[in-house]
Amino acid sequence: MKLKYFIALFVFIPVVLIQLTLIPLISIQGVVPNLLLITVVYFSISNGQIFGTLTGALYGLLFDLISGNLVGSNMLSNTVAGFVAGYFSGETRRDKYLYTYSFTLVVLMSALVNAMIFSFFSVMDFNTNFFQALFNHALLPAIYTAIVSILVVVVPYKRAFN
Amino acid sequence: MFKLLSNVWNQFREYLVLITLVIISLSLLTQNNNPQIQKVRAVAFGSFATVTSLFYDLFNITQLKNENKVLRKLNAEMMIHLSMLREYGILNRELKGMLGFKDTTSLPIIPGNIVSKSLSITQNTITINVGTNEGIKPGMPVISYRGLVGIIQTCSENFSIARTLKNVDLKLTVKNETKRLNGIMKWNGEKLVIVDVPRTYDFDVGDRIVTSEISSIIPVPIPVGIVSNIEEDKTGLLNLIQITAFEEVLSVENIFILMIVENDEKNNLELNFYNRQ
Asked: Which of B251, B247, B236, B241 lies closest to B206, judged by CA?
């Protein structure tokens, strides 16, 4: 078994620990950044679309089991998000999207897809205004996640090479 | 045939993997109440919560100072309330004795700490450091000194997961404390609302909302919040009552579990009654 599979598993534990303990401290009106998603996007761009899709599914399933969410809801949304991020993978594109501010845009796009799917399966209330729900449930968390991705991926890398 | 399958795999493997995983996810979504899934979940979060609780305690120490200050003030206020309640208690016992009522028993509560929070706009859950070893069961109410926080959903030996008020899957029967009107309260992803309230119901902004005794989950009145807004729903026939919860579930840390689960005997009796109709 390749080392990258082990790395993905090992990274999950600290990331989910931070997600469940520290991240709630920086929530804004209940909106929190999704560190698991940032990790899935990172793995998807660096290791390819299939790896990203599988990592998304595994992370989502494990997170559902340990957080008390509907089992399958995070798995589904992270699988699709990992798949979407995988489109930005490839030998030539990897460096372009991984350590530049483009990474933030990829995270934003994947987070939007992730949040929309997750919300669809958790709030099926057709009385709610669709666009307002889209804004509150998908856009705000996606923007917050994208901003945090700058801090955890782009900034440390830039500093290391300056 | 093998070549054809091989070609299909080589050309579409990303999509095949995606479709397979999506199908697995969707089938898992339909199996949430399966006892085996519940068992796997209990083992998974029980093991992980041990690690989370250690990690959480480290970062919690910094907040203790501020919390102590608030608690000291609250303690003083509670002392005054307590002396008033003692007076009422004496009077109440006297009046009950005069009327020949059976006295109510006190409700057992167990203190607990939140060791992790899974925050999302629609499905907020908290992990608590007490479990079946302390007698916790699914369905027990989780409260703080301000009011209701949520309901226990799953338990392992030492930890429990509770759905908070800000979880779309938690729906509760509540009532207007002063006007004795019942309704179903739920989190709609943005607000805590009592839904489908007839417009003839006399709710006012500022009314206190407590859990209703007709609830099949919480049969004792626990404060939930106050009415903060009343608006018409889209049909124009019903009202949507917006509630501001007494307890901010996102910042709560110290909680208590009320050791009651709605009485099975009572439920069965009601069910049998309806079955006979």
From this structure: B241
- Judge whether B159 lies within some domain: no
The C-alpha atoms of residue A53 and residue A62 are separated, in whole angstroms, by 14
26-65 of B, contacting A, C-beta below 8 A = 26-32, 37, 40-41, 44-45, 48-49, 51-52, 55-56, 59
Q: How far is CA B122 from the centre of its chain?
A: 13
CA distance B203 to chain A (A): 21
Distances (CA, A) of B50 to A84, B113, B114, B257, B267: 34, 13, 12, 19, 35
Q: Which chain A positions have a beta carbon within 8 Å of B120's beta carbon?
A: 32, 69, 118, 122, 141
Q: Per the CB < 8 Å rule, is B29 touching A71?
A: yes
Q: Which domain holds residue B20?
A: 2-30
How far does CA A40 lie from the centroid of its chain? Answer: 5
User: Are the beta carbons of B257 and B109 closer than 8 angstroms?
Assistant: yes
**Is B20 a member of any domain?**
yes
pTM beyond 0.80, yes or no: no
Nearest-CA distance from A101 to chain B in Å? 26
pLDDT per residue rounded down to tens, chain B (277 residues): 788 888 888 888 889 999 999 999 999 888 888 888 888 888 888 888 877 777 777 766 666 777 777 787 787 778 778 877 877 887 787 777 767 655 554 678 888 888 888 877 777 888 888 888 888 888 888 988 888 899 998 888 888 989 898 888 888 889 888 888 888 998 887 788 898 888 888 888 888 898 887 877 777 788 899 999 888 877 777 888 899 998 887 777 778 888 877 666 566 665 555 554 4
Cβ atoms A98, A90 nearer than 8 A: no
Helix residue ranges per DSSP H, B100-214: none
Is residue B46 domain-resident?
no
Report the chain A residue with the minimal C-alpha distance to residue B17.
Answer: A50
> CB contact, 8 Å: A143 with chain B?
no
Smallest CA–CA distance, residue A162 to chain B, in Å, is: 32
Number of domains into which chain B is organized = 2
CB contacts < 8 A (A, B): 152
